[in-house]
Every structure is written in structure tokens, then in C-alpha cells.
Q: What sequence folds into this?
């Protein structure tokens, strides 16, 4: 699994009432919580791509 790209908080606009908890950064990176689902989804995302909002 590739690491996620870091998004700079200055460029990220959150909806009202949402915030980013900086204490969670990297806390769960080594845990394979949904590894099987991610492994199945990655090839689909590479060929089809993410939906546009």
C-alpha cells in the first residue's frame, strides 16, 4: 500500500463544524485495518479513477 499524499492544511477547506485532529497523523499507518478491501479497490481506482464531485 502506498502512503497517502499529505495535504497542506492551508489549501484544504473543511466544511463548517469539521476540524483536523493532528494527534492522529501517522497513528494508524501500520495497521492493516481494511487491507483486503484496499487491495481490491486499488486496481479499479487506477483504471477508472475517482468520481468527480
A:
Amino acid at each position: 500500500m502506498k502512503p497517502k499524499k499529505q495535504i497542506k492544511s492551508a489549501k484544504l477547506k473543511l466544511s463548517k463544524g469539521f476540524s483536523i485532529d493532528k494527534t492522529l497523523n501517522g497513528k494508524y499507518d501500520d495497521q492493516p485495518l481494511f487491507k483486503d478491501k484496499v487491495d481490491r479497490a486499488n486496481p479499479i481506482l487506477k483504471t477508472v479513477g475517482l468520481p468527480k464531485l
Notes: The mean pLDDT is 78.
